[in-house]
Amino acid sequence: MKITALPCLCADVFVETGEIRPGGEELNFAAHASRFEGIEVSLIGA
Q1: Where are the domains of the chain?
Q2: Torsion, Cα of 41, 39, 25, 44 (10° steps)
Q3: Spatial separation of the C-alpha atoms in residues 44 and 2, rounded to whole Å
Q4: Does residue 15 register a pLDDT over 80?
Q5: Which residues share a beta bridge with 40?
Q6: What pLDDT, on a 0 to 100 scale, did the predictor assign at position 36?
Q7: CB 20 within 8 A of CB 13
Q8: Predicted TM-score of the model (pTM)
């Protein structure tokens, strides 16, 4: 299985600190999925 993540299309917003960081849920999912055998992960725009 191949997964392509587009992390710059989403961001994590930390209301308490006023920070906005690129990444978001798709980057988290791709990082986690890359641990499993048979899964190839690519990032675009990272």
Answers
A1: 2-43
A2: 10
A3: 13
A4: yes
A5: 2
A6: 92
A7: yes
A8: 0.52
